[in-house]
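Input/output pair, single chain:
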Amino acid sequence: MTVQLGAHVGQQNLGMDEMRALWRWLDDNGFDWISAWDHIYEAPPDLAGGPGTVPHFEAVATLAALAVETTNARLGCLVFYVGYRNPGLLAKAAVTIDHLSGGRFELGIGGGWHQWEAEAYGYDFPGVGTRLDMLDEAAQVIGPLVGASRFADGAPTEDPGVDGRPARFSFAGDHYRLADASNLPAPVQGGLPLWLGGVGERRTIPMAARYADGWNAAYISAAEFGRLGGILSDRCADVDRDPTTVERSVNLVFAMGADEAGATRAEADLAEQWGPMFERIRTGALVGTPDQAIGQVLAYAEAGADLVNIALRAPVDGEALAAYREVVMPAVRAEVG
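Output:
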């Protein structure tokens, strides 16, 4: 059993210089993964003051900056909402970021949830069934264009391709279409890993089994993560796939304190931030002191997580983050590698 440790950094309520400094600190201090999220407004939305009251940067441009500010960590987005960008264009952007990073970028997609921002910016936000239909089609478009492993053979093409990857790809679906589209240059790493995010048992997890190199779940308990991981393994068996070929990650709200007093403050802040969603979010939050957090991270590793990310929202408690780096990370790695 091994586990990597990463950070999921929300690009909100932070100046760009502050955020760049945080990325560099994470990259220099042994974090295996750094990701951003794909929102236009803050998350969670400020329902009291009105959504869109917190400064927030766009994801693609942010990730390009992240790519050139770091040199070590794997990078990603967990996850892009497929309703905001044509998936062909998203694939093109992902390969561009991959080149900026020197081959460290991984692309995540999902069905979205932030209705407030979508409606404010004029995007349709259909029901969940339609959004999952869009996700299914987007995976089928993006996978061949970025050379994801489940699409290594590609689709029927006119040209021989580059490094065995289809040079041209056509797709005709209900939501997206491509006509002899190429995506050159190829990714630095040959093919980009494709991630799917979500916890839906009927649609999302089976999609991850069919299409994805990685599956991400957010803000759920270790027990629930393990249960859903078992369903993922079953769905892999349905498509004759080795379940160990799907990397599994979880995002945990970072609400740990450097000491007892800090832990108490962090949990109170979490309750204020999430309001009526607090009880649900708390089940997927890293809480308590560093010694308590060690056991929580190990529980996710034992439940099958290959990667555990702490989700950081500004203002970040610098003392708590330093304690996570100095106490929690070495202890977890000593235990599980």
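Residues 167 and 184 are 8 Å apart (CA to CA). The chain has eleven helices and twelve strands.
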